[in-house]
Amino acid sequence: MAALSKACLATARLPARTQLSSRFLRQQTALPRLRAAPAPIRFPVATTTRRFFYQTPRRPYQNYNPHNHHERLRNAKPLLTDRGFSGFIRSPSTHTVAFLAFLGAVGFYFYNVQTVPVSGRKRFNCFTEESVEAVSEQQVKRIEYDVERQGGRFLSDWDPRTRLVKRVMRRLIPVSGMEDSDWEVRVIDDPRQANAFVLPGGKVFVYSGIIPIARNEDGLAAVLGHEIAHNLAQHVGERMSGQIGINILLGSFVLMTALWGGAILGTQLFGGTVLDMLFSRPMGRKQETEADYIGLLMMAEACYDPEQALGFWQRMEHMQQQQEGAPPEWMSTHPSNHNRIEKIKQWLPEAMDKRAQSDCAGTAAFADRFRRALAQGLLIQ
Ligand SMILES: [Zn+2]
What are the transmembrane regions (predicted)? Predict the structure, then answer.
């Protein structure tokens, strides 16, 4: 039984392996045949000298001659020849562009021409007050940096000299019509420098060396009134505009000189100096005269004594004569002190009237009459 069963088991196992029904086999064979695997793609092995990237073939070193560079430089053709440049200048399209640019420049010039109220002078100013103030902000930082770099220092707010300058400014600002500006006063501790300036936007810089020459508040009012007047009359914008005009003229001269084969550098130096003499310096002198006039009336309206302006410029003239000879007026951006003093003498009666008409008339005008009467030994009626 056991053997049978073994045999039965033996025989019973057989069909599972060997006696597969023909139907099963058919089913197996009826399965879709697998496709033959495609033949592997064979990339060409880089066995040749062919390159994937374009390369400039190197020149063999043995043929390199360092002198060739110099020779090639010597024989190199210029990018712009005289002939090519002349052709460019003479072409009708260049003439059209130049003519339109000229018309545009003339239109721009006349659109920006202004009349200065106090002198009636016509001037070209293409900068707004805001744009000039933006430039002066950078200038303020530059000045602060320069003062500190040179070992200088600004006087503190409680220094008597700073307080003096601030006191004068407090009286001048209301009559300047620029109360909205962001006024800041800085006094630089430098007794050797007799100078002061006010940048657009109300940034006041005073060198301590000018205070002894000003002597008193009235003298300092003459200095600061003059500097504020430059701002009121927008002289910085005018100077910046003038510089644009000079640069355009200068560029045209250089181009014309290049056309005729002349020396560009010579034109630049000569043209720059001449244009400076012809335009910048006379403009500077006119601006100074305007600032003197406006500053004088301003200090009078703020109840300062205009005669003190005369004394201040006389002391300045004396000091300059002692130090070194001032350049002749036509070479300088400033009028000579002598001319300045003469002009102030002419304007003094008007300034005195202005002072008498201002709010301080009640006390200041009487004080003036009292002083004059005292000097002449007269009684006030
Ligand atoms: Zn000035």
Answer: 248-275
